[in-house]
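Slide 14.
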Amino acid sequence: VQLVESGGVSVQAGGSLRLSCVASGYTYSTNYMGWFRQTLGNEREGVATMVVGGVDWYYQDSLKGRFTMSSDDAKNTVYLQINSLKSDDTAVYFCSDFNNWGPGTQVTVS
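Slide 15: predicted structure.
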């Protein structure tokens, strides 16, 4: 059972990126997949949650419109598209099925 994020980069404000999270060793263990982020010294915060199968999504209110979560179930992969990046988006981003966590991927916006 493993979740691995990728796609974290250093990018200029205003740019876009897409994070990926591959689930290996199993299919999703719960009905939900989520993206979270954490900055040094702060608690991990929820960014987006998706019902497996892509039938419903939930986003942190302040991030609606810039963040889009999607999935490719055939690849056991979920994505997080982030547009109009801001310096406040700098964080380590994690994916989770709410039982298991990936190691995270660093996004730095300058």
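Speaker note: Residues 39 and 91 are 5 Å apart (CA to CA).
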